[in-house]
């Protein structure tokens, strides 16, 4: 294996033999291939592609670079959910306790905010005292006792992916479908799961906005999981508008808790129920789809899901009172209600502008390890197609000071695009646009 | 200038604004952009291309990274020749003293053997005592006194090119036309020339074998020279067979000296005369083409060129006796004459096989700074189309021991491909295939 020859073959569009590609990746992990050769390879792979066999080699090398969890001590199925990331996506916080209440173990490893999206770990840490960096031993205990546990990626899982991701981030090679698919799946395959649901976002607020490329990503990931014996279902869901009303860490956590209480926006509840039903059926394939939905809804309405959430928060050191007083998570000192100045129709609620707005208000990161303000963000109760009267609320800006409030108001007014009353808003994508199971992967 | 954004724009096929590209290159040169980001950029540039304006920015940044020679003290035109490298190409050793004898100063900076080709510096160092690493001050003195001087690239010239070349060499990004063009031209533009002849090789033994890509390289280089006010002519010349008969450092030097003595292979003499005439006319545009040729031939035949060569060798510390006894440069201990076993026609003399054969015999490098054996190589007096009788000489192998001689014989027999007597050999390319001057560049 001569590194420059491997790079040249990929540059010229050839598929690499599995042992050649594996030799290259393993040599990189051992430090024998320098970052600059890997960077050239990643760019060649970005522009020339990796086929399914090459992607599988990448997954295997990432997986084998670290350890794999053994969760066979748990007396039941183990199913996780991964989202490719969207604006206002607080589903995980509702889903993990809900699915635990359905007798499926949920060993969830999540990430921080990335680019214009907030991250599950940050939302959890908006809860006073909540610890996301617990040991793997403690993670297993909580999982057994509560039915779910929510932590960050540990450095023991797929460390090769961690190094490659850091390099991709600074060399313009993040958004290649096979690289994304391998990165996500290598981590999920290490979790010791018996089933996996993937939420692949499509639309302007997604990292891969285009329908065709998002479908290709979903297809690749389902194929990887299936080939390795992990039953995997991908849902392609709408990210042409934010999910729910709240955008910003603490605001989203509060909204998630309201969903757990049977309240909150309908689109959030619907996506939670759909994903919970998929996870339940991966754990118990005999349950019919309609029955799975009904059980999920009942656990939300009965308070069982909320009860699991409280146990989870307590187990991970957090303040359980937030379950009763979710509005206590709205900690910003300045709040500005933004109203419509004239009658109008809402044409668009631009997700990316609002996601980037959270960063501008101090609620997101532009560099790793930056401290963030959990209180800032937006609440936007309107949706595309809504008819608005003069004076109606378009949204609330949560900011740390008056300057932030002014900037946030500007951002909100631009993100909520208004048309003349009676004007037809562009069609929005159905919330759950496509579903891809093992049978749909070629 | 955010490095990752620059890489992404090139990745997506956009042309970069001059100040953005220059900022990126300058930051790399200052050490603020790491090798891994430059490697990703180079691969993106390889696969997406650089347009003429971007290539010009690259040339400018390389040129400005180092110093530029001022040769205005010389009382006459200053013209150099650069070859993209071919098997058996010993033209420079004849050309520099010949053109000096035509009253054109030749400040020649050359390279070492690269891949399957030998290099001018190595051929010069086959002459006992010859120094190629003289100071720039001494270089100028020799140039003034002899009319020509031949040294290696100094680290003061285009150091950015040197760093980029080292990185390209290990990241599969050497053979991109704009990168090659910028690398060659930045060095030549630093030499303080008033004219430049480029010998761009085409055919199986060239680094860029394909006609179309070789023409594109020639066109780019002529455009770069012309845009910067350096009159530049490119000749596209045949490299589907070796040039001359000798391949290997000392053997080639001996053949070059025979050419200076008015002897030696016709193709070598012809290419020398064509290139000398071009250089003379760049120095003295009033001289008509036929007159330029005639003057070059007469300087070879009169011994004037040889006399300059002797002065050059003496000035650079070498043993001038080689001019009278060129066969003294044939220093290998084992020589095997390889004869035809049956009547045949020569279909092909494969240049790359013979060039790589020189490395196999110990006469070339696989790593920088490796010591090499100047004596080894091949003499192949046959050409495609020659009719051969049984027992006729196909070539002589020069090796350092019997093992080498055996391996060399095998290589030679394979490189000289024979057909049935009377069989038609494939057409060979005319020695000088195309000529490209400033008027031909768009």
Can you tell me about this structure?
- The first copy, chain A, has 442 residues and is α/β, with parallel strands linked by helices.
- The first copy, chain A, is built from 16 helices and 13 strands.
- Chain A has helices spanning 3-11, 18-29, 35-48, 52-64, 91-101, 120-125, 136-146, 159-170, 177-189, 211-227, 249-260, 266-283, 289-301, 304-315, 351-360, 402-415, and strands spanning 79-83, 106-110, 148-152, 195-202, 232-238, 246-247, 334-339, 344-349, 377-379, 387-388, 393-399, 416-419, 432-436.
- In chain A, the strands form 4 sheets. Chain A has a 4-stranded mixed beta sheet, sandwiched between helices. A 4-stranded antiparallel beta sheet of chain A has the order 6-9-11-7, with helices on both faces.
- In chain A, strand 4, helix 10 and strand 5 (232-238) form a beta-alpha-beta unit.
- In chain A, helix 1 (3-11) packs parallel to helix 3, helix 9 runs parallel beside helix 10 and helix 15 (351-360) runs antiparallel to helix 16 (402-415).
- Chain A is globular.
- The first copy, chain A, starts with a helix and ends in a 6-residue tail after the last strand.
């Amino acid at each position: 294996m001569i590194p420059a020859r491997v790079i040249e073959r990929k540059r010229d569009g050839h598929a690499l033999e599995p042992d050649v590609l594996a030799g290259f990746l393993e040599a990189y992990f051992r430090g024998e291939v320098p970052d600059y050769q890997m960077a050239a390879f990643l760019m060649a792979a970005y522009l020339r592609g990796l086929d399914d066999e090459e992607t599988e080699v990448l997954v295997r090398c990432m997986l084998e670079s670290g350890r794999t969890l053994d969760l066979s001590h748990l007396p039941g199925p183990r199913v996780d959910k991964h989202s490719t990331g969207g604006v206002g996506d607080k589903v995980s916080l509702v889903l993990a306790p809900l699915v635990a209440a359905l007798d499926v173990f949920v060993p969830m490893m999540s990430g921080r905010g990335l680019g214009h999206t907030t991250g599950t770990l940050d939302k959890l840490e908006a809860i006073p005292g909540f610890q996301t960096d617990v040991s793997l031993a403690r993670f297993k205990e909580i999982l057994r006792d509560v039915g779910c546990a929510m932590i960050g990626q540990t450095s023991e899982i797929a460390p090769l992916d961690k190094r490659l991701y850091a390099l991709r981030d600074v060399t313009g090679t993040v958004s290649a479908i096979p690289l994304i698919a391998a990165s996500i799946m290598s981590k999920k395959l290490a979790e010791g799961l018996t089933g996996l649901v993937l939420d692949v976002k499509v639309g302007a607020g997604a990292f891969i906005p285009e329908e065709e490329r998002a479908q290709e990503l979903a297809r690749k990931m389902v194929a990887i999981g299936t080939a390795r014996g992990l039953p995997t279902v991908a849902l392609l869901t709408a990210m042409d508008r934010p999910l729910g009303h709240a955008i910003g860490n603490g605001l989203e956590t509060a909204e998630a808790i309201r969903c757990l209480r049977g309240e909150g926006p309908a689109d959030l509840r619907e996506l939670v129920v759909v994903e919970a039903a998929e996870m339940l059926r991966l754990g118990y394939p005999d349950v019919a789809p309609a029955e799975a939905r009904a059980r999920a809804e009942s656990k939300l309405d009965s308070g069982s899901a909320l009860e699991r959430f409280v146990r989870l928060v307590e187990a991970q050191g957090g303040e359980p009172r937030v379950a009763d007083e979710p509005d206590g998570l709205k900690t910003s000192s300045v709040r500005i209600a933004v109203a419509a100045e004239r009658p109008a129709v809402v044409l668009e609620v631009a997700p990316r502008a609002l996601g980037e707005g959270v960063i501008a208000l101090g609620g997101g990161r532009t560099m790793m390890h930056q401290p963030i303000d959990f209180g800032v963000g937006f609440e936007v109760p309107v949706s595309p197609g809504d008819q608005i009267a003069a004076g109606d609320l378009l949204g609330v800006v949560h900011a740390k000071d008056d300057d932030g409030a002014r900037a946030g108001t500007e951002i909100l007014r631009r993100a909520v695009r208004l048309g003349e009353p009676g004007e037809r808003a562009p069609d929005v994508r159905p919330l759950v646009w496509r579903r891809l199971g093992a049978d749909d992967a070629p």
